[in-house]
Amino acid sequence: MESIPVNQPLLDGNEKKYLNECLDTGWISSEGPFIKLFEDRFAARMQRKFAIAVSNGSVALDAAVVALDLKDGDEIILPSFTIISCAAAIVRAGCKPVVIDSDSKTWNIKVEDIEPRITPRTKAIMVVHMYGLPSDMLPILKLAKKYNLKIIEDAAEMHGQTYAQKPCGSFGDISTFSFYPNKHITTGEGGMILTDDSRLAERCRSLRNLCFKPEKRFVHDELGWNLRMTNLQAALGVAQLERLDEFVVRKRKMGLRYRELLNDCSEIEFQTTETDYAKNIYWVYGVVLKDHVKADAEFVMKKLSDVKVGTRPFFFPMHEQPVFKKMGLFQNEIYPVAERLARRGFYLPSGLALTDTQLTEVASRLKTVLKGL
Ligand SMILES: *Cc1c(COP(=O)(O)O)cnc(C)c1O
Prior knowledge:
By secondary structure, the protein is an alpha/beta fold. 36% of the residues lie in helices and 15% in strands.
């Protein structure tokens, strides 16, 4: 039986050629020419003025939150159902994460629950677009305007996606991306910060590079980090970006094919395929076990692993994280949709190199497992 990995990237464009250029010229550090090329092209593609390449999507969030110069105890609203990087960036910056439940169909932040949680201390909303479908930006932007809040947009799963024809990654005062190998384009490890604000861009550049003073190196007014991306990573990024449109088409096709093959499975439900503002680009292909199914995600994933199908669990909600509980955060908070997604959701092999034959095989093995429950 063929083993089908949960993710395999597609690296058969100009990746090798550009990497060889790095090796041939000796430019392998963050000083190399592919960095600016990648930043400029990525900014243009997402319709932003400034792009700052960093070493991953998590630190992109760290720098983005710190760059906003918020005060200790300022509150930032975000969905509970997301990756730890989002809440970690908020906590590390000395701010307080305030979490909201998700919509059971779109898996994105439940927009109508945001306004009641806004207090005089609320300074920003961290929007996290989920699994290929953007959050509903229009009402969120209205709230931001009404209450004078900043938008931090985590678009790590949204390369090439649009909200009402405008690129995801173009909505935040500051927006971030990840280029981990399971994202729509990859640099191995890597991330990007986007903004139209020259001051924020300068702050992020400085935070990326240890806050060296331009006029006096090795003298520091503030603590930064080394978040620099290497020229090798940026070379991959430039090659991958050339194919983004093609990749989005491919991912959409894969998502729709899975949906078609699994549509008659009464045991599982799916993320919304299409809304009036976007068509899903399926970062990964997630499925959620319906309530009448006795087994949980962990059990079904184990069964799939027995038949050599790679899977990953869904995110685990921020309000249930032991690390935050220990800090005294989220005491007695309950968000049923986030909790359900975490326990009943998992995703199937969805990498760009997945062939149609493999995809069909995954669907067939999943069906057999579900029938056997
Ligand atoms: C992948 C991801 C990140 C983190 O990116 P890394 O590059 O893995 O650090 C952040 N936010 C979301 C929503 C992600 O999917």
